[in-house]
Amino acid sequence: MNHPVTSLSPPPPAPWSGFWRGASGMLPLCLSVVPWGILAGSMAVQSGLSLPQSIAMSTVIFAGAAQLVTLGLMLSGASVATIVISVFFITAQHFLYGLTMRETVSVLKARYRLPIGFLLTDELFALSCAQPKEKLTPGYLIGAGLTFYLSWALFSLMGIAMASSIPDLDHYHLDFSIVATFITIVVPMIKNLNVLCGVIVSLLLSMVLSLYQIEGAIAIAGVCGMFCSVMIARLRQEA
């Protein structure tokens, strides 16, 4: 008598599987933000923050662009309201990151969701987008995010220590590393014509608007680039 053959689905991966794979995958992006972290640490000292405050700036806020903008506004004497509004719009892309990763993260327990939410950065989002969904375990996401977090804290500490011995680090144009970092993030994500056109429109428009010193040039260029990508996708009848 023949018994029906039942197909057994593979067991789900352990929550912490992929931790070291995520950590090693994040290392190249960690190296690319060495100058960025040093600049953030040194600017914290130059803006008048104490040593504990400078350390907390990197370890608690953990947002490179937001930190640099905040410190720059503090040096210029901007109000608290101006700083809060500026940082809100600069980091608004995290809402999109959260919505994109909702399907993967929402099913996890709170003890995994909370650290992933804190560790979510542009770099972690880009790294996760390059991975199949079945490999995005809590261990992978936390391993990658924690590696970047520790690296950022270390590079910021280096900047804090160097601020007293090498003054005016901002004159060395270390902020160019921000551009280099986002290039390494964006280029691998250009996989179709829609994204390519959006990137080109954002790039050219940001250069033109910045040339004419129009406020909010980067934000305007980014929104226009996304609008262009959506329109081209609809014209090509893509999802």
From TrEMBL:
It comes from the Bacteria. Keywords: Cell membrane, Membrane, Transmembrane, Transmembrane helix, Transport. One of its GO terms (biological process) is L-valine transmembrane transport. It is found in: Cell membrane. Its main location: membrane. Pfam families: AzlC (PF03591). It is a multi-pass membrane protein. The chain crosses the membrane at residues 20-43, 55-74, 80-99, 140-166, 218-235. One of its GO terms (cellular component) is plasma membrane. InterPro entries: Brnchd-chn_aa_trnsp_permease. Belongs to the AzlC family. This is Branched-chain amino acid ABC transporter permease.
